[in-house]
Known about the structure:
By secondary structure, the chain is α/β, with parallel strands linked by helices. It has helices at about 15-30, 40-45, 90-100, 115-125, 150-170, 185-195, 210-225, 245-255, 280-300, 325-340, 340-355; strands spanning about 5-10, 35, 50, 55, 60-65, 105-110, 130-135, 175-180, 200, 230-240, 265-270, 305-310, 320-325. Bound molecules: adenosine-5'-diphosphate.
Amino acid sequence: MRRIAVLTSGGDAPGMNAAVWAMIKLAAARGIHVIGVEGGYDGLIDGVFQDLTRALDGGGLAPVAGLDWLAGTGGTFLGSSRCPRFRGPEGRARACARLSDADVDGLVVIGGNGSLTGAHLLASECGVPVVGIPASIDNDIGGSTDAIGVDTALNTIIEACDRVSDTARSHHRAFVLEVMGRRSGYLAMASAVAATADAVLLPEQPRDAAETLDQLEDLLRRSFSTDRSKRRVLIIKAEGVPTPTLLLAEQLQGRVEDLENVSVRGIVLGHLIRGGHPTYHDRMMAGRLALAALDALSAGSSDVMAGWQANIGTRTQDPHVSIVSLSDMLTETDRLLDGTSDVTTMRMRLIREVQGVLAL
Ligand code: ADP
């Protein structure tokens, strides 16, 4: 293998840059040139490439100068896009032709389940081998217990919860705090446990809006009663739960007007969750997944993804990287999202148990 291309696509996730940086360093050390595709699939269709490795005078390759800041930064320096053209066979045929023109022996796609769906189609339609790396703050990618970006996003959410809790406790406030996740409630579920929230609302648990309001009112009344005299109530809500967060906070406020000195506020974290320096865990995972993806391409594999998997058993072991076919991973992704995957069932059981601890 002489030359590969790498792109980042879909929603950006902290740690994408760390994966690209690891790819550049590892490939350069093996004498493999890396070109970066700018702007995800848009840049692939339009052939917008930049060199990420350079030849050294004395022989061998090195990363191009001035990129050594990459690993510690959020976002994606290559840029990303939502690219409707790539959904059609003509767009993908153009992309395939650009890859042949660029004379690459393989393509690495770093992105979420949409990007990896595109990667699967490209791999089956184009002669150039394609390997995926899961990166999405939503943690909704099959075949990988964690995706790049999830850990950083969760730490950002927990810090926001702590900050909001400081002010809430000073004023007997309840906060309804919305986190990203249209179809997947993973961020809401995981952060609710870690931030010791009082309730969590997930898209995977559809609820009647009026009934939810009744339950939340009851939660507030119980929490702020002299019996429990809590000073803070924190309700974490996933974006995909239909009632708008600020409206929900307003409706709740209306329900508890009679409680003296108690107020309810809504807060939407939105894109704040996407940014920021990747955590140790995301950087470390990005490096390991990049190594596995490069190995897979070198071994002649295509239409596969490097996934991060936990180990089961009593022996002490680190999580490991496994290579899964993109087709299997997409089937598992569907199961994750429709709630039939084993891991979703287990996560929902855990959250039900935790809800016994949460007040709702
Ligand atoms: P993410 O990768 O974060 O899930 P998207 O779902 O927006 O983000 O997907 C990113 C891009 O991947 C899309 O803009 C499109 O170019 C490509 N893509 C998504 N779904 C498909 C599909 N079914 N077929 C081909 N390409 C797709």
